[in-house]
Amino acid sequence: MKPVGKLSWMFRRMSVMSVPELAHRFTTFLAGILGTTPGRASAGSLLAEQAMVAELLRKAGSSSLLFKPSCANSDVDEMHLLRGEVPVFGAWVPVGSDPDFWHTDPFSSAVWPRQPGRKIDYRPGNPTGDVRIVWELNRLQHLFGLALIAAKDAGRRAEALRVLESHLLAWSRANPPGEGVNYLSAMEEALRLVAVLHAYALVHQWVSDEFRNAVAGLAVCHARHVEGRVSQYSSAGNHTIAEAVGLLYAGTLLKGHPRARAWQKSGLAHLRREADRQVDSDGGGIEQATWYLLFITDLLGLAQALLAHAGLAAEPQLDAALRRAREFLNTVATGPGDLPKVGDADDGFALWRRLRISWADRSRGPHQVSWRANGLSLVRYGEGDRLIFLHNPLGMAPAYAHGHADSLSVLFRWEGSEVLIDPGTCQYGDRSQYREYFRSTAAHNTVTVDSADQAEQLTAFMWRRPFNTALLLSRFEPDCAWLLASHDGYRSRGVVHRRGVVYRERRFLAVWDSFEGSGAANVALHWHLGCSVHAINSPLRQAELRLANGRAIQFEVSEGVPTHVRGSLDPLLGWRSDRYGQLEPCDVLQVTFETVPARPILTVFWLDEPGQMSEIWPLCAPFDKSP
Q1: Full-prediction pTM beyond 0.70?
Q2: What kind and span of H or E run contains 462?
């Protein structure tokens, strides 16, 4: 990042900090200069502690060091893992022999500098690329996958152990403490620590002394680094929970280390506070990002299981937050692959991609519910359909880092096919225009006024002027649901948007949009499709949509003319990202108005035989009567 850009970013970042946070950050900065940062140790001390911890691990013998979480590899996973490959956002990357491999983006081949972490520019706009990609490679969670193979299959144990040991030893040689991109983030160190300790626990009776020493060295170095850099104040989010779990693991498993008690105490204190704060009363996440809710729920589940395994007292706040979050997740989805990715999603996992610690095996029957605190309504009549209506706040104040400007967006699945989708996240660094687009209001199934967002994007992870949203009506009948909400994100333009949704089982999905205010502001409705646009009949304001299963449904709007956009670069519109870093075109239907519509706009997706708009309008009467 150029000096001017860095100064601008620092000013904006400081603008959302409280006075206590500014004092805390200044004290931390000063401690770094003076060498008094908590957890700091000399190279000689680290070596001595490594030897001590290695001996502690060796003496553990055949005792059960750790619990085995609910997790299993697929056959494809095992094939790639035994080949010496690492999963990185949908690709399997062969581990290279050059030490630079662990500092190289496997997709762009850009190499991150091998220098003290504090000197590396890694924020969006840096000259190297998206740091999240190389961090995914270096979480070393694949070592746990290899350990699962070694623990269950004696016939392939030797091969799994060979790959596992070679990878960890190579990583340790390529990443001296404090050097390079892999020591920039305390959360990344915490996740790596948890993964390596779980892997070691599964195979400790078969590993070499060299491997045990490497585990001990990584654990000591990482725990000390995390201790002094736990994310707090405006930075307290999913990072804080990951870091706290890392400290809890280190403090609980590395008994005998002089800092073990302090690590355990600190980890528990942060978890008590953050579990209750970050999981709202509905069970949703205050970051307004469903993937990060799953991430912290899995982390909290690992912490809960660790406490039980170690015979430590349960933590009521942690347990209560877990119950809420798991109930929310299991009501909305059947598993990680089924989770609607509302808000940011970086596709990261707490331990391993097959972890099932937060999921219950149960059928998903009909369900209609509005979670008012979280701002999400769900309507499901069977396994193949799911309507989600967002009446959510922007995210976690004061920066709202992982929220999207998606208020009043609608997501819809019918007969197992996605009809209306959330386009996703794309990625955090590098291509800044796509970061801006995927967070924007235009990238969601809602309404824009003057082509603006519902809130103002300040940086890649900051918003200001957040909107307020209110759920005005939530009514459910056996075969029909009514939902109505409003937001004030366009108050500066004199416009308040109200949206009503009527969903009649197997018949139609209708969306009613009303605008309070008037003027020359242009208005646009966007519908991002998981299906294709087969034909448009402009005079009748209709379009035929073709689902993935071959079925056709009809789109109809009461006013305006629907236009089809796909993969547009100017302006950016019609893109989706099904996994982190991926970018591909998607179909969008757009309906625009040159001035604020004076009367409500009705959009209907006919699921069976098309009907008449006249049969829908009376069903929208409750929306006109609601305050």
Answers
A1: yes
A2: strand 462-464
